Amino acid sequence: MAPRFDDLSSSYHDLLRDPIRDRFGGGDSAFFHLRKSTLIRDYFRAAGVDTRRLAYLDVGCGKGELLECLRPHFARVAGCDVSAEMMQGIRGVETRVQKDPVSIPYSEDRFDFITAVCVYHHIAPSLRLALSREIARVLRPGGVFAIVEHNPFNPVTRLIVRRTPIDSDAILLKPSEVGRLMAGCGLFAPPPKYFLYFPRRLFRLTGNIESLLSVVPLGGQYVVFATKRPGLRE
Hints:
The protein is of the alpha/beta class and 234 residues long. It has one domain: 3-Layer(aba) Sandwich (Rossmann fold). Helices cover 35% and strands 20% of the residues. It is built from nine helices and eight strands. The protein has helices at residues 2-8, 12-16, 19-24, 30-46, 65-70, 128-138, 155-162, 175-184, 200-212, and strands at residues 55-59, 76-81, 94-97, 111-117, 139-150, 187-188, 193-195, 221-228. Strands 1, 2, 3, 4, 5, 6, 7 and 8 form an eight-stranded mixed sheet that branches. It is globular.
């Protein structure tokens, strides 16, 4: 994976461009990162957790856009990725290279919150449990792991993935697979929340409606917030 993403790094944003995706985001890919940032902040707000006391790691952080969105809201943020070239432009955030795609270069029980955003569909299915166990290892008891993936039930999402060069190796995950992976590494995973129903222009007017639709499996992507039970160790 590392050589491939190293080679794609300089043209990464151009290779992500798609007419449907561009119109949906209002011509600005920042919309997609901000949506994920909002979902994460809303999750912790609803749980009554002050994220300014938490240590956060983004696995497969790429160019660091989500880290940049969330950095002001956490006590410490860090990122890791298989591609050093992808992370080259990240400033003010600790980053480490994953020498192996299923190995996390941090010690155990290190982070309160971990994300993996559109990472797993680039990982071979046979290796996904190993990555999940590594994430569980570096997650503190009581910590939260948020996995965000493309929704394979959404035909528009499948179309965009099929014609996006970055996703030429993508094997999409159903939420049921995510549930099995989380159970396999000892994390408790509630049902997924679906999002990206409305394009940027409409979302500003219909945000509350999208929240109500989060249980309907038709959004462009979904998120699962899995928890490591206190006292549990793999």
